[in-house]
Design brief:
By secondary structure, the chain is mainly alpha-helical. The protein contains 8 helices and no strands. The radius of gyration is 18 Å and the shape is globular.
């Protein structure tokens, strides 16, 4: 709980600092959107790689990540709620038109992604986890984390083709590479588990 509270205070303080220093106009809101998206990405990836890192490269750091992986997922969900707040603000500033930085992919891929993030965050509450049961909860979160991964990947790839930036490597390519690296870790870890299960079965 302390990790969740501390990280959420950090996320909220960062968002407040952006509004205070950069302003509250459309350009400042777009900056806040980009920043909160990247901060949320970091929290997501920490939760995404926690289990395979502990399996493949056990250490004190990986053990801590593994023990906090559900908390990291909740922090990611809360961070995304701040991001959604800036999305709403951007729409208000451009109403009744759609904000020019928002692409069709942002709209049609992003909304289902936000719904999935909300579902994963809500079902991380212990009472709801018990109500779902361990099997259903595991299936939901295993599927959900890959859905969120895919949505990050699709939105970043779409941004490379549609959005202009002075630093595309820092803005998009680096994050795509991190996503692929995280996917590789999970695939290798899954294959190793399957190999171990086959060996023990024989």
């Amino acid at each position: 709980m302390a990790v969740i509270i501390g990280a959420t205070l950090f996320n909220t303080s960062l968002a407040g600092a952006l509004l205070l220093l950069a302003g509250t106009d459309s350009a400042a809101t777009e900056l806040a959107l980009q920043t909160t998206a990247r901060v949320s990405f970091v929290w997501f990836m920490l939760a995404f790689v926690a289990s395979p890192l502990q399996q493949l490269c056990p250490s004190r750091a990986s053990a801590w990540l593994f023990s906090c992986r559900r908390a990291l997922g909740v922090i990611f969900g809360f961070s995304m709620s701040i991001h959604v707040g800036f999305i709403v603000r951007l729409y208000v500033l451009h109403a009744p038109a759609r904000p020019p930085m928002v692409t069709d992919a942002d709209f049609f891929i992003g909304i289902p992604g936000l719904v999935m993030v909300a579902l994963l965050t809500i079902t991380s509450v212990e009472a709801l986890k018990r109500r779902l049961g361990p099997s259903a909860w595991r299936r939901l979160h295993t599927t959900g984390i890959w859905v969120v991964w895919g949505i990050f990947f699709l939105c970043l790839v779409d941004s490379v083709g549609r959005k202009t930036t002075a630093h595309p490597v820092l803005a998009y390519h680096t994050f795509i590479a991190v996503l692929l690296l995280g996917m590789g870790l999970r695939v290798v870890a899954a294959r190793r588990r399957c190999g171990a299960a086959t060996s023990s079965g024989t």
